[in-house]
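Write out the bound-state structure for adenosine-5'-diphosphate.
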Amino acid sequence: MAGRYRTVLLFGAPGVGKGTQGKLLGAIPGFVHMASGDIFRSLDPRSELGRKCHQYSSQGLLVPDEVTIAVWQAHVKSRIEKETYRPEVDLLILDGIPRNVAQAEALEQHLTVLAIVHLKAPDVDGMVARLKSRAAKEGRQDDTDETVIRRRFKVYQDETSPVLGHYDAALISEIDAIGPPAAVLLRILETVAGIYTEHFHNPLG
Ligand code: ADP
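---
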């Protein structure tokens, strides 16, 4: 993997709305959204790799770092080959990775992190309820079981939240994740639109 990818990290607890905001951001010309959970779910469940990853995700546990980084690298490579991600002109919006400090260290050589959008919502019970209703709608097996959901929150607290401490505090924007998607998007763009303008050319000319 040659070069470094200019990236904004979408950060926040399970159910806080990273996926919704990532998709909205990904619809903007020049922005490419990449969610690690989607990458894992797109693996063939009958393959050895797909089966192994599912074993972890179905229990609310993180997939081992080496596997995660390798799967992510293969995905980026294929996106570059297909030209659905063009590092020289696209801002990468990474969602769900890095998920612990070891992953942040492993990704250091590949990423130039321009900003970290930390989506915050105070109400864990509200997020648990949201995950359960999403599970029913989207067929997310990992979110049908409340014990698994609660474990995912614990993993977030213990392993993922320390990732914020790995980066320069000046890169982090604390964003209130409560409200309609359009309102949250506006808050995110207050940071990210400026970063885009600073580092990229207008994709529409
Ligand atoms: P969430 O709803 O918590 O944002 P995701 O869709 O991002 O969940 O991820 C679903 C599952 O995929 C996780 O519970 C985990 O098992 C696995 N996963 C996703 N990203 C990573 C990662 N960076 N490292 C390890 N495991 C991951």
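---
The first helix runs from residue 18 to 26.
Residues 14, 18, 36-37, 40, 56-57, 60-63, 68, 96-97, 99, 103, 142, 152 surround adenosine-5'-diphosphate (CB under 6 Å).
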